[in-house]
Amino acid sequence: MTLEADGRGAAEDFMEKVFGDYVGANAIFMAAIGDRLGLFKDFASNGPATSAELAARTGLAERYLREWLDGMAAAGYLIFDEADGRYSMPEAYAPVLAEESGMMFLGAAFFDYSTNYGETFHALLEAFRSGDGVPQELYGQEVAESIERFTAPWFEHQLVPVWLPLMPEARARLEAGARVCDVGCGQGRAVIKLAQAFPECELVGLDRYEPAIQAATEHARAAGVGDRVRFELHDGAAGLPGRFDVVTTFDVLHDSADPAGLLAAIHDGLDPEGRYVCVDINCADRSQDNVGPMGTVLYGLSLAYCLPVSLARGGAGLGTCGLPEGRLREMALAAGFSQVRRLPVDDPFNNVYELSR
């Protein structure tokens, strides 16, 4: 084979890879439509349908549904039965496509994240030119809801039954009625879940994004714990509002404009015998080791949100992969923590740490 032919073969192989990536992008785009309009949930609840039947069930336009059904069948998300002209979703697909907050649900993680961030795409291009960031406020409510949906399985299925049993000191304090502070609380799901599991605790959630505080307050009231928790518009890096037995952050530290300052504030606001529970990204210490499918996802998320939001505040700009275990340990020790323990949790996305003052 000549050098020219060999080069052409490599180019064709790469062209096939790019085409495969584009196929996946189109599948995710169409799946995002189905997720946002509740179409997968409708199939899970009501079974097979023609486009006309699905239109009658959902109140959506038949012509658009017909195109979407054919596209999802082409992508392998739905199955078309030529005998009766109906489309169906295999039962095994429901946990992935339709079971909100389930451990296998990917609606928010993939579908939301691949469409909502398009609204800030041009702002991101300008940030590439200027070196500035993209303010969190520009992302809007839909992105905040996407983050809420993405993180929901952690709090619904992991925090209390899986993670806390691996931290006996922290759990004992919670059972005894701890003073708890969740920094970067978002819409409050972690605070609410802890309030439900440990009714003797006094809990506060902090966030610098006012719409998140408003949503968290409403969610706490709806969950029946509004009288036992509070949410404050506050930047944790400026110092915690008191002394706490347990402090938590859930995928917050790497997004922070001042992660070193936030670690120092948490250290100073923690009771001498207290515990800091830190959940952050499971990534390699060396960037060249963050490769393959998961590395691609992490760097895509970083460019879409984590990096520009931090830089918009003149921050450190760690990015999604900027806080591997080695760097977290280094920064935590510099902030005054005496011990950083990584829990034996098998999670491809997150590491869970327990830090002692």
UniProtKB/TrEMBL annotation:
One Pfam family named in its UniProt record: WHD_Rv2258c
Highest taxon above the source species: Bacteria
Single annotated GO MF: methyltransferase activity
CDD domains (alphabetical): AdoMet_MTases (cd02440)
Entry keyword annotation includes Methyltransferase: yes
Domain Methyltransferase per the UniProt entry, residue ranges: 175-282
S-adenosylmethionine-dependent methyltransferase Rv2258c-like winged HTH domain sequence ranges: 29-97
Gene3D superfamilies linked to this entry: Vaccinia Virus protein VP39 (3.40.50.150), Winged helix-like DNA-binding domain superfamily/Winged helix DNA-binding domain (1.10.10.10)
Biological process according to GO: methylation
Keyword match Lyase: no
The entry's keywords: Methyltransferase, Transferase
PANTHER family on file: METHYLTRANSFERASE DOMAIN-CONTAINING PROTEIN (PTHR45128:SF2), METHYLTRANSFERASE TYPE 11 (PTHR45128)
Annotated protein name in UniProt: SAM-dependent methyltransferase
Annotated source species: Nonomuraea africana
